[in-house]
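Action item from last meeting closed. Structure (320 res):
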């Protein structure tokens, strides 16, 4: 696509690059954490070039939402929206509810695409609390003047954060104390962290020249399209269309994403509560779906679940 930045420009950062591909392929939520200058913004800026086009139904939903928001500049398109609200945005701007009739907010305007919340701890506490329902259920419901309005809000959340307010890459020279670092990270409510499928550190690669160019967006997107097709086939008799929509509860996810014995043992042995474990299982399935040469009907092996575990590394702080 003309004017879209390419992932080939991102050198190194193998784990964050994989996390981005998994997020887009499976419709999952990703938190990138790392110091300033490590490459988080470079990754965020290249999301648009990886997103598959919307189908007719989803494109119509997106068009209706943007029309309800009175966005006069919006044009019919199959390109998924990428919304980047400011950390100073109010809860109303995110949820919607302004005007009569009420207009949808950023959560719904990101429906079918990606919502980018850059520097997540900088958002107000009430804004972060409002994330819980759309992340879990994929919709926003507001009641005003005895009238309840419901908008779809099925998006992938791509959030970023620094380890502390100053964000210095040199831990020894940070101006922030350990206590302030913990307070900063603790601004993110634990229910929001629990709903993140992927939590990945971004550390600047060592300065070794020349670094090989990264895999280009066109190649990554081709694998993503294959992964999406596999999910649609697997879920064709269900109400879901991608791995992220499979509920992280009940037995459906265990039936739809079966594991071989060794993977089941690792699954049972990890020190996580059930919800994050089931989210990790969905991630393992997406990783497998991205392997073009793999038989999509095979149960998940240990290697996919082990990689999924690597893609959930919380910051060393009170978040753990």
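Sequence:
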């Amino acid at each position: 696509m003309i004017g879209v930045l390419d992932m080939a420009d991102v050198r190194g950062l193998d784990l964050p690059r994989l996390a981005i591909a998994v997020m887009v392929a499976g419709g999952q939520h990703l938190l990138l954490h790392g110091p300033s200058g490590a490459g988080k913004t470079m990754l965020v800026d290249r999301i648009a070039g990886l997103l598959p086009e919307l189908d007719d139904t989803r494109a119509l939903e997106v068009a209706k939402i943007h029309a309800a928001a009175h966005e006069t500049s919006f044009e019919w398109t199959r390109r998924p929206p990428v919304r980047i609200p400011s950390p100073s945005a109010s809860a109303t701007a995110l949820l919607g509810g302004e005007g009569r009739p009420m207009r949808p907010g950023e959560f719904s305007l990101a429906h079918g695409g990606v919502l980018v919340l850059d520097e997540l701890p900088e958002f107000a506490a009430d804004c972060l609390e409002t994330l819980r329902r759309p992340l879990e259920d994929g919709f926003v419901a507001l009641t005003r003047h005895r009238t309840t309005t419901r908008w779809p809000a099925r998006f992938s959340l791509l959030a970023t954060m620094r380890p502390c307010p100053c964000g210095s890459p040199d831990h020894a020279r940070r101006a922030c104390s350990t206590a302030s670092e913990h307070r900063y990270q603790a601004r993110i409510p634990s229910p929001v962290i629990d709903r993140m499928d992927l939590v990945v550190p971004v550390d600047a690669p060592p300065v070794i020249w020349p670094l090989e160019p990264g895999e280009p967006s066109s190649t990554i997107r081709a694998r993503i399209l294959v992964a999406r097709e596999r999910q649609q086939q697997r879920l064709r008799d269900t109400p879901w269309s991608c791995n992220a929509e499979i509920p992280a509860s009940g037995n459906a996810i265990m039936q739809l994403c079966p594991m071989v014995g060794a993977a089941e043992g690792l699954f049972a042995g990890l020190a996580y509560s059930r919800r994050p474990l089931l989210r990790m299982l969905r991630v393992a399935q997406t990783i497998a779906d991205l392997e073009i040469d793999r038989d999509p009907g095979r149960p998940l092996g240990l290697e996919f679940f082990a990689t999924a575990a690597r893609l959930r590394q919380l910051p060393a702080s009170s978040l753990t």
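Note appended to the action item: The chain is about 40% helix and 10% strand.
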